[in-house]
Amino acid sequence: MPSDAQRPRLSNRMEQAILRLLDQALGYHPDACRCPRCRRDVVALALSRLPARYAGSPTGEVLIDVELQRVQVQAELLGALDQAIRIVKARPHHHRSA
């Protein structure tokens, strides 16, 4: 097994894109809970509906980030977030223990 120094550093650019859009998507749902647990649930649900986009280099990060800025992709990301927000609003877990 490679040491930590030898392992490639991977970055899930889809996760970063979803995190950047989260507040915008929540803005369309003023009645949605914004507690840390509900926010995490929304992000996790949205990411589970989208393909992961990993980059292993700074160049790869830039290329993927440019692709994720396309209007069609942004619409898909906001759609996944909208669906996730609706699910979490219907069945929030913030009142349950971790």
Structure description:
This protein is mainly alpha-helical. The protein has one domain. Helices cover 60% and strands 4% of the residues. The protein has helices at residues 13-27, 36-48, 58-68, 71-90; strands spanning 11-12, 54-55. Helix 1 crosses helix 2 (36-48), helix 1 (13-27) packs across helix 4 and helix 2 packs across helix 4 (71-90).
Q: Could you provide a short overview of the structure?
A:
The protein is mainly α. It is built from 4 helices and 2 strands.
Proportion of beta-strand residues:
under 5%
Tally of distinct domains: 1
Q: Give a count of the beta strands, DSSP E runs of length 2 or more.
A: 2
Mean pLDDT: 92
Task: Assign the structural class, choosing from mainly alpha, mainly beta, alpha/beta, alpha+beta, or little secondary structure.
Answer: mainly alpha
Percent helix range: 55-70%
N- and C-termini, Cα separation: 33 Å
Radius of gyration: 15 Å
The unreliable regions are none
* DSSP helical segment count: 4
Please outline the major beta sheet. 2 strands, antiparallel
Outline type = globular
Give me the strand/helix succession.
EHHEHH
Q: Could you give the order of strands across the largest sheet? A: 1-2
